Amino acid sequence: MIYKKNAARMMTDVLKGVITNGTGKGLDLGDMPCAGKTGTTNDQKDGWFVGYTRYYTTSVWVGYDMPKKLEGLMGNTYPGKIWQSFMSKAHEGLEPLEFLPYARISDDLLQQQESGSGQPEDNPAEETPEEETPEEEMPVG
């Protein structure tokens, strides 16, 4: 499935909140902007954390091949701490890169569109210009 840039950027904005205020609070990478999602099965047999920066994406799963309960297992415990440790090392020496912003639509423009008086070409939320990470900031290896 392919998402429009703006939709993906909006989702990143939501997933940043998981780390700053949600179930992944405390799993930040210092000054490096990051986003992520915790996950746990109801019976604590599996836990995972998936997170990313503009440089790297990493997923960590913790559980047993033959499922059994693991006390204290949640996405923000073992998987989250493993993710944080790994990603902290992976980002050593890299400049913090903010996530690209998404285009926001004003209430006035939204109301115009809903009433049918707004034209699609007037909609700044359709897409934002493509911005790429400068080559000198791209990780190598």
In brief, what are we looking at here?
The chain is 27% helix and 14% strand.
Could you walk me through the main structural features you see in this protein, from its secondary elements to its overall organization?
The protein has helices at residues 5-20, 78-90, 107-115, and strands at 35-40, 46-52, 57-63. It has 141 residues and is of the alpha+beta class. Strand 1 and strand 2 (46-52) form a beta hairpin. 19% of the residues are buried.
Which tags fit this structure?
14% strand; disordered C terminus; alpha+beta; 141 residues; 3 helices; globular; three-stranded antiparallel beta sheet
Low-confidence stretches: 120-141
Mean of residue pLDDT values: 84
CA-atom Rg in angstroms: 19 Å
- N/C terminus separation: 27 Å
What class would the helix/strand composition place it in?
A: alpha+beta
- Helices and strands, in N-to-C order? HEEEHH
Task: Figure out the total of helices.
Answer: 3
Strand content: 5-15%
Helix content: 25-40%
Q: In terms of topology, how is this protein built?
A:
Elements lengths: L4 H16 L14 E6 L5 E7 L4 E7 L14 H13 L16 H9 L26
Antiparallel strand pairs: 1-2, 2-3
